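Hello again,

I reread your note about wanting to compare the complex against the isolated chains. To keep things tidy I'm splitting this into two emails, and this first one only covers the full assembly. Below are the input lines as submitted, including protein chains and any nucleic acid or small-molecule components. They are followed by the predicted structure of everything together. The single-chain runs will come separately.
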Amino acid sequence: MSDSRSVRVIPAALLVTALLGYPFLDRWLQAQTVHAVTDAMIYVLLALGLNIVVGYAGMLDLGYAAFFAIGAYTMGLLNSPVLGSPLYGHAWSFWVVIWIAAAVSAGLGVVIGAPTLRVRGDYLAIITLAFGEIIPVAIRNMGDITIDIGGWKPVERLNLTGGENGVNPVGRPHLPFVNFDTDFIPWYFLILIIGAFSLWAMNRMRDSRLGRAWMAIREDETAANCTGVNPVKTKLLAFALGASFSGFAGSFYAAKLQAITPGAFEFNVSIMLLCMVVLGGMGSLKGVILGGMLITLFDRILLAQMTFLVRWIGRSLGIAALANVDLTLWRWFFFGLGLVVIMLIRPEGLMGRRVRPPAADVDEEEEMQALVAAPPRPRMESLPAWLREAAARGRTGGPPVLEVRGLTRRFGGLVAVSDVELVIPVGGIVGLIGPNGAGKTTFFNLVTGLLRPDEGDIQLDGRSLVGLPPHAIVRRGIARTFQSIRLFQNMSVLDNVLVGEHCRLHASVAGAVFRPPAVVVEEVRARGRARELLDFVGLGDKALEMAKNLAYGDQRRLEIARALATEPRLLLLDEPTAGMNPRETDTLTELIGLLRRELGLAVLLIEHHMEVVMGISDRITVLDYGTRIAEGTPAEIRQNAKVIEAYLGKGYEQELIST
Amino acid sequence: MSATELLALEDVHAYYGNIRALKGVSLTVGRGEIVTLIGGNGAGKTTTLRTVIGLVRALRGTVTFGGRRIDRVPTHRIARLGIAQSPEGRRIFAPMTVLENLELGAFSRTDREAIPQDLERVLTLFPRLRDRLAQKGGTLSGGEQQMLAMGRALMAKPEMLLLDEPSMGLSPILVETIFDIIRNINQLGTTILLVEQNARMALRVAHRGYVIQTGRIVLQDAASALLRSDVVRKAYLGEK
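Full-complex prediction:
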């Protein structure tokens, strides 16, 4: 459940000893590096916060330093109000302000996050870039505010931030018997504690319901939405939590440095933080720590030392150019160069996940046997009991599972779906066929909430679904698979199924971090269920594989397992046998039949393999140019002249005979 | 090498990503033939095509086209030698019109004056594209996109056409149409290497066939013989 258990004891003990002993060793050696190392740890904390936004949730944030600034200035404003501030003379304690700073940053994280919810990629990057520019400018201008309304001046020469001069000095924390004024060692331990706590919290968040939702959004937002993850909430949480860690880092930074100016929070800081995350490996906590440490220490220690070295060489050899060089002025050059080199050799970052080694060769004879042998058939006995129970709870004699009336959707002048009716009774399997471009996938997108209908109604168990977002519809009991498989490629097979369970789990952020018994029980049960489901679809031994490494047929079955994990009443399958060989197709057909028989699951099936549709469907609806041209039993559809003309073709009968 | 041999792969080994996708593939396509390569998912069909076109490099073995080694020739040059590919998943230029897509297919040609004539030929093969010349490629239906991809490949006036899963995701009636067109294209003189999941249709239209399994050719024969072979019937035609 967490990585901490699997950490071997001896290296962990050594690490703790090293971290605890380091500052004293440093003092003994007179190396005076504690100051720089403490600063490095602040940047590491910032980079870890950024990693939540960029590495986990996959949102490129170019203005993260703004949150750093907000944290720092919250400390400055409250702990050391400048002359001219209404708070002047009423300094708040460091220990209180550090929490306020985190909360203020989180709040602003939501504010900046909100407008960016609908955009991704380039647009999101530009919005965050703008935000990153606004904050330092705003801080500069809040040093001297005068509001003059026709001579009446409600605010005159209000100085909140110290303007260009910043806040100086910033008050320090006070603890009995601890000297924060002249000694860096207490600072070191304070950031070590904050960092360790943050790391612990992030580690737990990553391995929770929330962490999985972030990664699912990163991998495929649409698929995540259709698997029951609320993208709005999930992304806002990433922004807020990522920002709150920088709130801690910023307030700590302000107090340690004793002075803050707007210049310390500009664009290049955002970029440096991003470099740390990318260099270390996006999404890897260890990698981000390594990246942050490397870049800051390189900057603070190595460049300075190298300058002395190069100057000494220059003097010894009598080369004036080298003797007067200042390598610290070249820092951006070295950052850039280093990053280019790393991206060329290890694009996934220093600690990023490596691609798996080539698969071992298979015995040729085995290959031939595998070619003819059947894949494992779905067995009734291995159908998870909890799924059966969930299905039994939902089963009622009442209205049909799905009832679609007069459904219409236009794209500009084109009517993609026009006045379509479709009814699926409890436990019914309905096939939806039609020529390419007839509107089948559009119909799916309307039912699952990805598109809003222009007219008509969609009811699940007698309740309308129109207007609900996809994740809410999943919660109500409709799950789907996609025509082109849309798994969360860079997540494990098990995690893919766990994302499916997302909408049936309840763990909150606090729950994810503190893990009260209820959350632990829930998580253990969820994992057990996911394992059972994987066993059922025949992927039990591949649970820890990366989804993208699965063979094609396995990916299709995983997508179905993920859909089943949402405990659906109705399963929408969009060409589930596309690209499958005949035996895989048989197995899948059996699986669908089994689900209906045992769970009373209703299925709506888009499929071009006529043996499948005709063999398994109770009734078939045929769409052409968005309208329903036929509806009936497979036998009726097979003989329908309109259907033969528009879809099946004359050759179809020959095909049947020859099969 | 016989006089009629147009494309030949000789003991080709290749990696696709980190997977050793081809483990010594040898096959030939004679001038004027339709040769099909059938096999399951991940068997190495697409990698074989990508190796021919130079998108995947052979680690070992040779690829010759018209008597010339092409396994170290860059992709855009291979295209100019007379091989055109219609990629799997219909990779057309979605924001461009159908006409622009087709014109792009003729991009590397030097005989500009012959292009209108070939456009006419393509539009005769695919009458549905004629109705949609001004429409954006991305707004076409799946079957039309497939036709556009094939038409674009033909606009290069290739000696040889590589087709990757042309029937994927198409309705039964369109599958028939597409295979009819493939036969037509061939009769007009284009040599075709066809990769397909739909083994039945592919073997019906092809002259010869190869069965590939985990990177090796396991069977090769005349298409009609393969249709009757036990292994093929069980593994790819779904007969019990």
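For quick reference: The domain at 5-82+158-235 of chain B is CATH 3.40.50.300 (Rossmann fold).

B.
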